[in-house]
Specification:
- With 226 residues, this protein is α/β, with parallel strands linked by helices.
- The chain contains 10 helices and 8 strands.
- The strands form 2 sheets. It has a 5-stranded parallel beta sheet with strand order 2-3-1-4-8, with helices on both faces. A 3-stranded antiparallel beta sheet has the order 6-5-7.
- Helix 1 crosses helix 10 and helix 2 packs across helix 3.
- It is globular.
- The two termini are 17 Å apart.
- Bound molecules: adenosine-5'-diphosphate.
- Adenosine-5'-diphosphate binds next to helix 2 and helix 3.
């Protein structure tokens, strides 16, 4: 079994974060923690958090930093992520969240932050075609459909277009990404924690590039993460 790791994956909407995090979580046997999936589950269950989140998510707006960090830190305190690490997807999304995460993790730190780079013209094409399973969140597209109708190959759930994959919400999410999330790239670069990887090409090719970046970093650190 590969040794665990504490990783963050950054990238625009449609850069392939969800798909790559799933592959990496199998490769490194660490839990994929996706704030978007956690919030969608809260919406589905109708919890107080879900009721608060729904309207903001449908409009493509961000939830408050404190609320998100409370949800994330509670999850990261569980034994699986505490013992073997995590692959964090969707958080941090602002520099304040990154600071809060760093403080929360101390005396440990993230092992690596991977930024998956895809040109905006390409993510717009991907998002228009994206379909997801309502139950397990597996990703499909108009060109990579499930085997039988719109029934998920993984769990049998219904495969639909996400409610926030409307043209309006997508353009708002990309705008917020440029304003609030893109500055994290320089922030993590300055801390020497960033690896940038091209997200174009097949999902398998992208996974290989990411694993190579992680292993290069691990080797530079003498074969061990913190
Ligand atoms: P995407 O990356 O495609 O925008 P996600 O599935 O990661 O989608 O997140 C969906 C929505 O959940 C976001 O548009 C936002 O409303 C909310 N959200 C997720 N993560 C965060 C976060 N770290 N901070 C604030 N809001 C968040």
């Amino acid at each position: 079994m590969a040794a665990g790791a504490r990783l963050v994956v950054l990238g625009k909407q449609g850069a392939g974060k969800g798909t790559q995090c799933l592959s990496l979580s199998h490769h490194y046997v660490v839990t994929h923690v996706s704030t978007g999936d956690m919030l969608r589950e809260a919406v589905k269950q109708g919890t107080p958090l879900g009721r608060k989140a729904k309207e903001l998510m449908d409009r493509g707006e961000l939830l408050g930093d404190d609320l998100i960090m409370e949800m994330v830190s509670t999850r990261l305190a569980e034994s699986d992520t505490k013992d073997r690490g995590f692959i964090l997807d969707g958080c941090p999304r602002t520099v304040d969240q990154a600071r809060m995460l760093t403080d929360w993790l101390a005396p440990f730190d993230l092992d690596l932050v991977i930024d998956i780079e895809v040109p905006t013209s390409q993510v717009l094409r991907r998002l228009a075609s994206r379909r997801v399973c309502v139950d397990c969140g597996a990703n499909y597209s108009l060109t990579a459909r499930p085997m039988i109708g719109w029934t998920c190959d993984v769990c049998g759930g219904e495969v639909v277009q996400r409610e926030d994959d409307t043209e309006e919400a997508i353009s708002r999410r990309l705008e917020i990404y440029e304003l609030q999330t893109a500055p994290l790239i320089d922030w993590y670069q300055a801390r020497g924690q960033l690896a940038q990887v091209s997200g174009t090409g097949s999902p398998e090719a992208v996974t290989k590039r990411i694993v190579r970046a992680i292993e290069d970093t691990r080797n530079r650190k003498g074969g061990r993460f913190s």
